[in-house]
Amino acid sequence: MDNQRVFLFVALSFVLLLIWQAWEEDYGPKPVPSVINNQSSSSIPEAIVKKTDDDIPNISFNENNSLKEVKNIDSISSDQGQIVRVKTNVLNVEINTIGADIQRVELIKYPVDVEKKDIATVLMNNGSSNFFIAQSGLISKNAKIANHKTPYQTEKLDYFVDEQSQSLKVKFKWSSKQFDVVKTYTFKANDYLVDINYDVINHTAEARQISQYRQLQRSDYSDPNESSFIYTYTGGVIYSPQEKYNKVTFDDIQDKNLKSNIIDGWVAMIQHYFLVALIPDKNQENQYYTKALPGPNYVLGLFSDSVKIEKQNSLQLHSQLYMGPKLQYEIEKITPGLELTVDYGVLTIIAKPLFWLLNKIHSVLGNWGWAIIFLTIFIKLMFYKLSEASYKSMANMRKLQPRMVTLKERFGDDRQKLNQAMMEMYKKEKINPMGGCLPIVVQIPVFIALYWVLLESVELRQATFMLWLDNLSEPDPFYILPLIMGATMLIQQKLNPAPLDPIQAKVMMMLPIMFTVFFAFFPSGLVLYWVVNNMLSIIQQYVITKRIEKQK
User: Which of 50, 121, 408, 532 would give a disulfide with 376, using CB separation of 3.0 to 4.6 Å?
Assistant: First the structure.
């Protein structure tokens, strides 16, 4: 095995690992939750599209008054009702008085483009193309109570939270002869986490059982601003201390309704850089559920166990809703496991320390581009001895190149005798032809982990570097970095012995061109890493090669 095969092996391994990672995201084995047959009655809220006069779902309870069966909760957002607008210094939110449900969220500090700073990213929206809303409501046995189709009353239609007021409560009220319900959203300055409170008063002459449900409904939408060449997961996720972090794809939801009981868990819909998560109170048991609707739209929700409210008494129910960026050091403080939505995949154990180091470097330098460069230097130093062994092996193989050409001419197409003669030569010269391969293979997991760090971390979204590189999360607009990377690959090839096989030589000549095109669609932050890494490798390999040639 000559050094060109080593180089080819590393290049193809990188591509194959990326393909394997994407395949695992979509088709890899997942824990199988409990399944509900679409034709049978369910023990969770069943979302239906057709509007009906009966706003209250049919429910039944066990002997201990725990939830047994719930069905027929309509999951359609009404176009009627008034729109309540809430503005903080990080969020623009629209809430419909029908159900008091959140139907639009804009992230003020995350513009859609570096050149459109005044246009905020829309995370949630009730439009036809990008449908994504958050719904919640209450259910009571044999009594009408406020659900997400109920018309609420509110004091005003515009609210504003600034840094001085710190927090704001937006209240929605509904009353009947049986219940008074106040649904309150609490917004805070500089915070993407919203509290949702239900205050319920029971006016009836008997105790009632109250349960709350919370659900996210969205379409399978692809952001046109995202590169179709880069794979990132969009879909549902479920977390519990028992089953840990599980993905529920839209295909999973389409295939069958899912359900399972979880304690201290949460559910979320995630996409590249951002997420919306439903977070119940600690130590509370909930049942998560899914439902596919025509459109297609997909529902992922939580349903709490029932709570008893005595006659002529009151009850409070609480949960939280996170709507914002995947700032991993911020969201990990909210609830366990939420930081896993920053999806580094199977190499999370390597990726997290890399991001920690990258973040520390950025805190000193204040520039993500320079942080990537210094992180690359650090990684190169960490693997210096391994790389040195690899380049020494390549340099020694380069010394044998004239003799290998002579053997090739002597044995012609007799590959068996050629390989035997080459192995004898390696043994005599005490050279291990695999010596250049293993050190590089050991580094591949680190390279792949850093790839996902640079791709998934919202902190690098629209990060500027210098000159024309004003967005490290987007491809180089002038393709300068990919061209430089292709040139560095050509230089590395010149430092290696030429392949004896003419077909292999042609493949090696094509690789720089293929990778230049390949990386032209990558975020420039990723290409910057590879350019710096290649340059450092060229310097190290050149010095080692010249040293060994002098020894000769």
Answer: 532
